[in-house]
């Protein structure tokens, strides 16, 4: 049985993906498209969203959105309603994950004692408030129709604290500290998911979280080796390793599942 058949089918369904132009966002779009869905590609650059949507086909469309602005998300809702009969899936994937471009100051700025307040507040605004707005605007439409699946992307660092030794090279030099904002906001994603699952359980809207492990993406070799050694499966994730999980949570294959946090991390959080 193919993904376009049975419980895993998303044929004639529409799926909104925020942060759709990112490494995992694109893979989420590919997965949902392969299961038969039409994709609403959402990110900040509308032209790039439209270009990617044209490559996905399946009547997919691209929409430029600022998820931290209520009016922008309301415009997204209207655009989707004008193009599709219903909104069936919402993947809240957009997020800020601190990266310091200047390696000379990354170590000092990433220390908790020095971490800039503006970076903390930016992460809260995108990772939590942006998710809240998307759920409030788009999820309310689902609740009114009494059907829908919301998937909030969390992280292993929403479950366990960062292991700062991963960012230390073989000579013992610390290159970077994982900052406070990302694990804090990703932990909030899981709590918010449980709240909304309970709140909309009687409305036919399922709300689940997906917590992926680290994805190999041109990191320094010492980090890849450190991460792999700390993971039971012995490697970092490939960007395509979460496609099955997204299809599962979006489709009827998980129709009796809500308020859960699906952990797909190669075993990283069991130690």
Low-confidence stretches: none
> Radius of gyration in whole Å, from Cα?
19 Å
Helix content: 40-55%
Total E-strand runs: 7
Our count of domains comes out at 1
Task: Return the CATH architecture.
Answer: 3-Layer(aba) Sandwich
Query: What's the arrangement of strands in the largest beta sheet?
Result: 3-2-1-4-5-6-7
Q: Pairing-aware structural class of the strands and helices?
A: alpha/beta
User: H/E order of the elements?
Assistant: EHEHEHEHHEHEHHE
C-alpha geometry = globular
CATH class: Alpha Beta
- Largest beta sheet, briefly? 7 strands, parallel
Task: Outline the structure in words.
The protein is an alpha/beta fold and 271 residues long. The chain has a single domain, classed as Rossmann fold (3-Layer(aba) Sandwich). Helix 1 crosses helix 8 and helix 5 packs parallel to helix 6. The two termini are 36 Å apart.
Quick structural overview:
The chain is α/β, with parallel strands linked by helices. It has 8 helices and 7 strands, in the order βαβαβαβααβαβααβ. 43% of the residues are buried.
List keywords for this structure.
Rossmann fold, alpha/beta, 271 residues, single chain, 7-stranded parallel β-sheet, 7 strands
Question: Layout of helices and strands, plus pairs?
Answer:
Blueprint: E1 14-18, H1 23-34, E2 38-43, H2 46-56, E3 61-64, H3 70-83, E4 89-92, H4 103-110, H5 117-145, E5 148-153, H6 181-199, E6 205-212, H7 221-229, H8 243-250, E7 261-264
Parallel strand pairs: 1-2, 1-4, 2-3, 4-5, 5-6, 6-7
């Amino acid at each position: 049985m193919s993904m376009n058949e049975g419980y895993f089918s998303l044929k004639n369904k529409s799926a909104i993906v925020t942060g759709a132009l990112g490494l995992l966002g694109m893979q989420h779009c590919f997965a949902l498209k392969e299961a038969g869905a039409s994709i609403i590609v959402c990110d900040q650059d509308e032209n790039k969203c439209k270009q990617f949507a044209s490559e996905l086909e399946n009547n997919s469309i691209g929409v430029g959105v600022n998820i931290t602005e209520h009016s922008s998300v309301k415009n997204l809702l209207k655009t989707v309603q004008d193009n599709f009969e219903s909104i069936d899936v919402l993947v809240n994937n957009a997020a800020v994950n601190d990266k310091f471009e200047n390696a000379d100051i990354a170590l000092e700025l990433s220390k908790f004692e020095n971490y800039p307040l503006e970076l903390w507040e930016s992460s809260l605004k995108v990772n939590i408030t942006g998710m809240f707005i998307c759920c409030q605007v788009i999820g309310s439409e689902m609740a009114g129709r009494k059907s829908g699946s919301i998937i909030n992307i969390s992280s292993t660092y929403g479950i366990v604290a960062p292991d700062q030794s991963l960012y230390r090279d073989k000579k013992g030099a610390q290159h970077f500290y994982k900052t406070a904002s990302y694990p804090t906001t990703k932990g909030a994603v899981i709590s918010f998911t449980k709240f909304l699952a309970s709140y909309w359980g009687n409305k036919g809207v399922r709300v689940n979280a997906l917590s992926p492990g680290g994805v190999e993406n041109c990191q320094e070799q010492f980090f890849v080796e450190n991460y792999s050694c700390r993971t039971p499966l012995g490697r970092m994730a490939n960007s395509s390793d979460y496609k099955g999980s997204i299809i599962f949570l979006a489709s009827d294959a998980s129709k009796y599942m809500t308020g859960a946090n699906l952990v797909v991390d190669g075993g990283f959080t069991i130690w």
